[in-house]
Amino acid sequence: MPVMSASHKGLVTFKQAAADVGLKAAAVKSGTEIIDEITKSGLKGRAGAGFPTGFKWKLASATKGEDINKFVVCNADEGEPGTFKDRVILNECADLVFEGMTIAARAIGAKDGIVFLRGEYAFLRRRLEETLARRRVKNLLGKSVLGVKNFDFDVEIKMGSGAYICGEETALIETLEGHRGEPRNRPPFPVDIGYFKHGTLVNNVETLCWAAIIMSRGAAWFQQAGTSDSAGYKILSVSGDCSAPGVYEFPMGVTIAELLKEVGGEGAKAVQVGGASGVCVPAREFDRRITFEDAATGGSIIVFGPQRDMLHVAENFLEFFVDESCGQCTPCRLGNSKLLEAVRMLKDGVCSMSYLNEVVSLGETMQLAAKCGLGQSSPNAFLSIVNNFKDEIMGRVSGAGA
Predict the structure, then answer these.
(1) 402, part of any domain
(2) Is 252 within a domain?
């Protein structure tokens, strides 16, 4: 399936969406019919992991029992460096987010919804509460949504406390329950045992919006763009050394070179795809595509111009992870500190080649042994910079010039 449709700056499709048409379509369908439509669309989670949304909803719907109280949680804890598109979506298209949550509730049989809002986004809360109140008046939330019997659903907003780890869905649920934000062992998964042991569906802000539009326009519309494994469109936060930073909508499968041309980033040395936990792509690989099967991202695109010191970039990201590690597992708690120490040794010219090789091996071990996605992905930038910018790195190795 070819990549189709031009890119747009801003939330063009979201703003053009007809108000609550997707919800009205879902209200007269069964949960199975809704899940089938989402599954046929090929929508995958837009937070970066790319788990099939329809399958996740199917798992959540499978929890049965008269006393089962399910929850739909919107993960609005947008903590990845370089990502700000969810903030813009919540500010400009809140109705669409709540519409998507209500459709998800209809699909899995949930009655309660929670928006887990990033602590730094507290300024958005008043507007979001006003939007919820307006939707209740319009019978888009509350008892018998749209007059449909046994379709009861409402949403409340709960604030995060500023920890990056709480973007991980089980750590998010721990926080909602009043505990320290630490990932849980899995299985069991949240769809089975989540918020206070209830079945809980956790979806990203953007994912819920696309679900609402798919129910309005149909799975075939979403399938017309993207690739065979990455259907549809992606909202990207673009920042760094480019003349036109901002929020963009691109069809999945766009190349990094095409993206750079659109945002005024031609001549870049590298692009960090996926934020601090992503990979640093050098200029020679700008033909790579933004897809789940190639260069995956939850939304962050950071452009680095030719003047940037890539070792400084690695140091900046690792400082972030040292601060944000929850400390629960040894590979992440100690590993990130050792990686940061090695980068600083390289800057000071006192890191030997043998030690650098040991640290690279440590990073690869962290990718396998860390408990959650934070520790597993935190070495990514360091490893990709060491691998792709050897000319900059090796010149700093102790004894390299001897």
Answers:
(1) no
(2) no
DSSP string, 227-286: -SSSBSEEEEEEEES-SS-EEEEEETT-BHHHHHHHHT-TT-SEEEESGGGSEEEEGGGT
Q: Are 78 and 91 in contact (CB under 8 A)?
A: no
216 lies in the same domain as 316: no
pLDDT value for 259: 97
Buried b (16+ CB within 10 A) or exposed e, 227-262: beebbbbbbbbbbbbbeebebbbbbbbbbbbbbbeb
What pLDDT sits at residue 49?
84
In the three-class reduction of DSSP (H, G, I as helix; E, B as strand; rest coil), residue 204 is classed as strand
pLDDT of residue 1: 46
| Confidence (pLDDT) at 398 | 84
Tally of structural domains, the chain: 2
> Is 321 in contact with 336 (CB distance < 8 Å)?
yes
Residues 219 and 314 both lie in one domain:
no
The enclosing domain of 160 has a CATH number of 3.40.50.11540
Given a contact cutoff of 8 angstroms between Cβ atoms, the answer to whether 14 and 213 are in contact is yes
Residue 4: predicted pLDDT: 56
Tell whether 401 is covered by a domain.
Answer: no
> Taking the CB of residue 267, how many other CB atoms lie within 10 A of it?
12
Residue 295 near residue 256, CB atoms below 8 Å: yes
The answer to whether 257 and 33 are in contact (CB under 8 A) is no
What is the residue range of 164's domain?
Answer: 12-223
pLDDT in tens, 290-304: 999 999 999 999 999
Q: Which regions of the chain are under pLDDT 50?
A: 1, 401-402
Question: Measured between alpha carbons, how far is 229 from 50 in angstroms, rounded to an integer?
Answer: 10
Residue 357 located in a structural domain: yes
| Gap between the Cα atoms of 155 and 72, Å rounded | 9
Query: What's the predicted TM-score (pTM) here?
Result: 0.93
